[in-house]
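Design review, sub-item: ligand-bound model
Attendees: FS, YL, KQ
YL presented the inputs for the MF3 complex:
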Amino acid sequence: MKITIKTPEDIEKMRIAGRLAAEVLQVVAPHVKPGVSTAELDRICYEHIVNEQKAIPANVGYKGFPATICSSVNNVICHGIPSPLKILKDGDIVNIDVTVIKDGFHGDTSRMYVAGQPSVIAKRLIDVTREAMFKAIRIVKPGATLGDIGHAIQTHVEAERFSVVREYCGHGIGRIYHEDPQVLHYGQPGTGVILKEGMTFTIEPMVNQGARHTRLMPDGWTVVTKDRSLSAQWEHTVYVTHDGVEILTRVPGDDNEL
Ligand code: MF3
Ligand code: CO
Ligand code: CO
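KQ shared the predicted structure:
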């Protein structure tokens, strides 16, 4: 596959899709509380996308995925399937990952939420993961490399004695949900693809409290930490501008901004 360079017209549509995805994460936020099920959170997101945004929830049916959001609680790294049986309890941490298609283009974003009060270590894991994502985003500009991005994330995470998941990565995005390039969340500076104006991709580090190793559950989707430690993830879709970066999935005033 080849890395697609978006036209200004494409970018205008990516901005809209990105903003819609970000709005879903805002709409669901007040509902993430002890006692709610992840299926209920999924329903809220689905209804908003379909009825209010008149957009398409990209995850539904994607490679057979059965829901609108991935809801990944505590030791779940990613791709958790919403369930009426999964009721959040006080102190749970959860990543909600949503992708919206509008006018043929995708916007993909995720963030961490806490039900009630998190433990000190859970809060630190969430904050370090968020900082790692933003450190990487700040590096994005024409001439920087994907290795620079991976290195920034890995360095920040490992300095805090957490670990970076290797099996899952960020990705190019546009008319196609997952396109080239792969955006690894670890690596060496100055290596890999050189960024060019018009590229759009996600940065979505998954960070484990313990070891980086993963295990796929028998449902074929849910990815958990092998050592059952907590895991956190944040994700933005970004656009390489002529001299830097634009976050396509940010909502002004929210804490998902730089
Ligand atoms: N949104 C995820 C990502 O960041 C992919 C989810 S695919 C699904 O790339 F099928 F699990 F929904
Ligand atoms: Co995502
Ligand atoms: Co993604």
